[in-house]
Amino acid sequence: MPDTESTKQSPRPIEVAVYYFPNYHRDARNDVWHGRGWTEWELVKAAKPRYPDHQQPKVPQWGYFDEADPAWASKEIDIAADHGITTFVYDWYWYDDAPYLQGGLEDGFLRAENTERLKFALMWANHDWMNIHPATFTNRPEKLTTGAISPESFDRLNDYVLERYFTRPNYLTIDGCPYFSIYEIGRFILGMGGVEQAKAALDRFRDKARKSGFANLHLNAVVWGFNTLPGECAMRDPAEIVQYLGFDSVTSYAWIHHHRSETFPRGSYTAAAADNFKAWDKYRAMFPGVPYHPNVSMGWDSSPRTVQTSPFENRGYPWISIMEGNTPDAFAAALMRAKAFADDEPTASARMVMINAWNEWTEGSYLLPDEINGDAYLQAVRSVFGVRGDQGIR
């Protein structure tokens, strides 16, 4: 749980963290599921306008690059650091007792010559992997693999991340504790066999971290994960679960998790912002003593993940409303709200703002330059947070 002593320290500069979705390099599982050499760039290229004035396809200014190439990763690191971003939080996967989509991190980011200009951390995306690349009109996707892993597999996951990542000098730590986020708390509890077993698994993880020389772990829970709490879980109150499992902070992943558009296909970025600003206050009150890191989404358009030849209807994710009005100025205004919220965080060492996302091209939420807006969204980040003199390394 949060160290009360940290409230006596000088405020730590706000960590400006962006989620990084690494499905833009070749992976062996994708070769099996989608064909040899497939990456999600194929969906980006195939996207079409779904109604008048709908801006698709999104065309990256840098072209369709390989994120597992350290030379390209170096360019990403430089442009991120130069615009005030301090940390990439990688969507990180562990299926069938082995990592998935790790090449963007391990072969690209960590082998880049300038890797230490940015910190990095893991958000364990422990959801089921569904075949939505693209999703068919019936929207009944096949489950390709499950995210609910066993305690034994979780122990092996712990060993993997401790050895491969936590020991890196630029891995994000808070008060000497490596930051590790879990996307779906309910699915984690389900895999462990219950909340008591989940607590025991996290205690083992913490013990391994301490034996490896760290002060402890900083465990972060994504609020969205409570939507999948198993029926046999005795605890139904998210605050009770966070306290019992000992999470050190909570956050969100994307604005759509706390907003339901009342219009289709044209949604509203302004309406989504208003709902999420309310959610920040709600979660800060819901989890007293546990820092809540506000999330800002750059936009939303998951239509590239739908079959482009089918009518675009409201059928649930990814067949959902598109946030319109997400201009760079509107994004900057939301970042200003998030900065003010983070500045109010009483735990001095745990001030963070989470941004969705660095490269969610097929969900319409990305900071990388495109051919229409250039680097305008990155400029918005820099205008709000400035650029840290220490290049984000701490």
Please explain how this structure is put together.
This protein is α/β, with parallel strands linked by helices. Helix content is 31%, strand content 16%. The chain has helices at 28-34, 41-46, 70-81, 103-108, 151-166, 185-192, 195-211, 238-245, 269-286, 328-343, 376-385, and strands at 15-20, 87-95, 98-100, 119-124, 129-130, 143-145, 173-174, 177-182, 218-222, 249-251, 266-268, 292-293, 295-297, 322-324, 352-356, 359-360, 365-366. The strands form four sheets. Strands 1, 2, 3, 4, 7, 8, 9, 10, 12, 13 and 15 form an eleven-stranded mixed beta sheet that branches. A hairpin with a 2-residue loop joins strand 2 (87-95) and strand 3 (98-100). The protein is globular. Mean pLDDT is 93; it is low at 1-8.
Number of strand elements: 17
Q: Mean pLDDT, rounded to whole units?
A: 93
Distance between the termini: 21 Å
Helix content: 25-40%
What is the N-to-C order of secondary-structure elements (H for helix, E for strand)? Answer: EHHHEEHEEEHEEHHEHEEHEEEHEEEH
Q: What is the molecular shape?
A: globular
Structural class comes to alpha/beta
Low-confidence residue ranges: 1-8
What is the strand content? Answer: 15-25%
If helices are DSSP runs of H or I spanning 4 or more residues, what is the number of helices?
Answer: 11
Major sheet description = 11 strands, mixed
Radius of gyration: 20 Å
